[in-house]
Amino acid sequence: MDNRLNMATLGADESRYINREISWLQFNARVLQESADESVPLIERLRFVGIFSNNLDEFFKVRYATVKRIVEAGKKGRKALGVYAADELLEKITRIVIQQQEESMNIIDDIHHQLKDEGIYVIKENEVHFPEHSEFIKTFFTEKVSPALVTIVLNEDLELPRIQDLEAYLTITMKKKGSKKPIYALVEIPSELDRFVVLPQVDGNDYIMILDDLIRYNLESVFSIFEYDDISAHMIKITRDAELDLDSDLGKSFIEKLSKSVKGREDAEPVRFVHDQTIDTDTLAFLLQKLGIENNDSIIPGGRYHNRKDYMDFPSLGRTDLLYAKQKPLPIKNISLNDSMFKKVAEKDFLQYTPYHTFAYVIKFLREAALDPKVRTIKITIYRLAKLSHVASALINAAKNGKEVTVQIELRARFDEESNMRYANKMQDEGVKLIFGVPGLKVHSKVCVIERQEGSRLKRYGFISTGNFNGMTAKIYTDYTLFTANKQILKDLSKLFNFFDTNYIVNTYQHLIISPHYAKNTFYKLIDAEIKKVKNGGRGYIRLKLNSMSNYAIIDKLYEASQAGVQIDMIIRGVCCLIPGVEGMSENIKMISIVDKFLEHPRVLIFGKEGEEKVFISSSDWMTRNLDNRVEVTCPIYDEDIKKEIIETYTICWNDNVKARVISAKQDNAYRRNDEAPLRSQFATYDYYLNKLN
């Protein structure tokens, strides 16, 4: 199945940059490609549909909502948005999303047919044929669903109650012969119940019913008090603006302001309305009028089911043959979790690369620090915490043991604000010193520095990561974490924590590249150095691995390097506004994107040809927000063994010819295919580390 979007047919002006929002939709199209890929296990394909849908929800809540605000402010926004004016961009987004939604529905239908071949049936309310199913469904509805059901009868004269953001609703239309006006109602699908209900097996086959259809099966009992000759149910969903509007009341704490703002999302303006495309026009018109949905909101005709993000939790039914085989996270060579982390780091830097390596090394390091009587201080930045966070528990444990624990916690990590606030309050209650960011900046760096009394001096240890200290995402996000006792790096880290405390003083750093103060200019200098090599008759070479690249100034710098003859290889997972391979502008730039079992998350920068490489890991993408509006840390790799390891794992990714898509001016998400032996980089990387242990 071909899931590629032909951007040329959408009329995109691709002369110099790809618009950020359009590029993001192209990334999500690559996620959807995974759900169409016959080589992906069947249930995993459904879960990719869920990831695609969840991504799209967040896109509308954030990016689409931002563009809509520009339109409502009466601004065109062409300069800020790139390529398109704001109103034009809204139209293009809607057209692309409608196309992608249609594609996703076709993919789901295809997967459901293939599930039948595996003896798994996802049945609708009119496909209940076995008595044991009928009995189970009625009992389940009476005991589990009915008590949780919220049903709202709609009256033209009454204001519609608040429709919850991203919740799915069944719009009920009841018609009686001879009556001109139908009776309308809304049924909220209970979000606290699993969306997929597993029915009893029959003749060795598995049966699943989506909760929506289970409710449809029981509509007669819900609306028995009404007189009607015909009843129908169609699903709708609203997405609301997720921007946080913080008030300026100086008498409130930052947590109070943020908590109020997060709650305010419930009443935010709608930015997308998705409806079952088979709903009749009169019912749709009634709903749009009631909900205040306007022409510049994105109205998306969809299928029978919405909130397809729930497919991320599609039941496995014990069918391990329809899932990815589980890979046990590996230990780091010569580093046992029974060893003292301080002793090992003092001997030599080491690198953790999750999920190929176990995340347990981070937890072990913090737990050891919490108990070690020689440890005096622990300072750490936190961006996203797991709902059950062993990191937070270790820090609280350290505070209880008398350590001076300082946590710079970013409460504004989008969609994780509530979890972070909960842990912030808990840590504060236990004596942890909290710092709530820097005015005007988000703190997105992922660093830790620990001071330990060794004889008459304090010695520093620490770690620097490309990803969050989150035990759950560490199972599915690929990220590097450098453990080090390097005096120079850790001295700079201590300066950074001083900046968090007294952010009116801007420090100078000798080794770390810190955004927003020095990063962009430092990256320019590194690029210029490669340009100079070419001009002097040598070879210039840049290799980048990032999540996103959208800063036009730095893109122009890369264009300049390409035009000078510098070879640039880029692995960009998500948004990229740079257009590679254009003669006279970017012919020396090659770019791929890898979407596979794990989410590619590390940021790696490699400057220089073989044998002369300068290697960095970073928390920062090359986006304006990261370079100008966030505190980010880019760390040089000085250990030669680790430098070699990062270059080798980068090269494995670059040589992928199974899950790599070639990003080009065509913007068609074409898979890279060549005459080399098949190389699937995520599987090959696991084998790389497995072989290291032998």
Topology:
Blueprint: H1 20-36, H2 42-72, H3 78-81, H4 86-117, E1 120-123, H5 131-145, E2 150-154, E3 168-175, E4 183-188, E5 196-202, E6 205-210, H6 211-217, H7 219-222, E7 230-240, H8 254-264, E8 270-276, H9 281-291, E9 298-302, H10 341-347, E10 350-354, H11 360-371, E11 375-382, H12 390-400, E12 404-409, H13 417-429, E13 433-435, E14 442-443, E15 447-454, E16 457-465, E17 477-484, H14 487-501, E18 513-515, H15 519-535, E19 541-546, H16 552-564, E20 567-572, E21 589-594, E22 599-600, E23 603-607, E24 614-618, H17 624-628, E25 630-636, H18 640-654, E26 660-662, E27 670-671, H19 681-692
Parallel strand pairs: 1-6, 8-9, 11-12, 12-13, 14-25, 17-22, 19-20, 20-21
Antiparallel strand pairs: 2-4, 3-4, 3-7, 5-6, 7-8, 10-17, 11-15, 15-16, 16-17, 18-25, 19-23, 21-26, 23-24, 24-25, 26-27
- Which CATH-level-2 architecture of the largest domain? 2-Layer Sandwich
Instruction: Tell me the number of helical segments per DSSP (H or I, 4 or more residues long).
Output: 19
Low-confidence sequence ranges: 1-13, 244-266
Oligomer: single chain
- The percent of residues in helical segments reads 25-40%
CATH superfamily of the largest domain: Polyphosphate kinase middle domain
Q: What Rg, in angstroms, do the CA atoms define?
A: 27 Å
CATH C-level class of the largest domain: Alpha Beta
**What is the number of beta strands?**
27
Domain Polyphosphate kinase N-terminal: 17-122
Domain Polyphosphate kinase middle: 133-314
Binding site for Mg(2+): 384, 414
GO molecular function: ATP binding; metal ion binding; polyphosphate kinase activity
